[in-house]
Design a protein that fits this description.
mainly alpha; elongated
Amino acid sequence: MAEQLSPRPRKERKENADRRRQQLLDATWRSIAQNGLGRTTLATVAAQADLSQGVAVFYFKSKIGLLTEALRDHYARYQATWERALEEAGDDPRERLIALIRADFDPDICNPEALSIWFAFWGEQKFTPDYAAISAQFDAARNDAIREACAALMEGAPEDEINRTGEWIDTFSDGCWQRLHVLPNSYSAGDCLDETLALAARLIPQIATRLMPR
């Protein structure tokens, strides 16, 4: 009986808590995709996760706490994807820039559910400073990665030209996401990837040879 009543080891408790927390975050994405951001509540998320609303309250305290952590988690997955792509690309700045662009259209990142979540949160940044702060933090890391690749390929170019080039590529990629979100039957992720790579090759001709069929 003493063994049955003994508490679980701390590591096991933490693993269970982390798993439950992630279960709720995943359910948040599904709720946003189905109900929209405004109609997503602790109750809709708990129902999606097949858990009680009390469990959601225990882990996240409030709706804004839950949504804030869901956005952070969404960005963290995005960052893990492009960081992994950079690691696999190696040290060649041409391959690194191409890898960053390709990561934007990875099926795990660029899909209808994920895009609906991005645009739902971006539309609320003006009214919810926490969302804007999270976006700024994660966007800065990716912008730095693009800028570093551009700087290595545009050696000797003025800094503002390097910055603008990185911003143009990033903005074009964002525009492709918007097209895919608003007009999903008119555009494909593959087409958008090709167009973004073509733009990058026009801006930085050094990468053009890496894009030719082999």
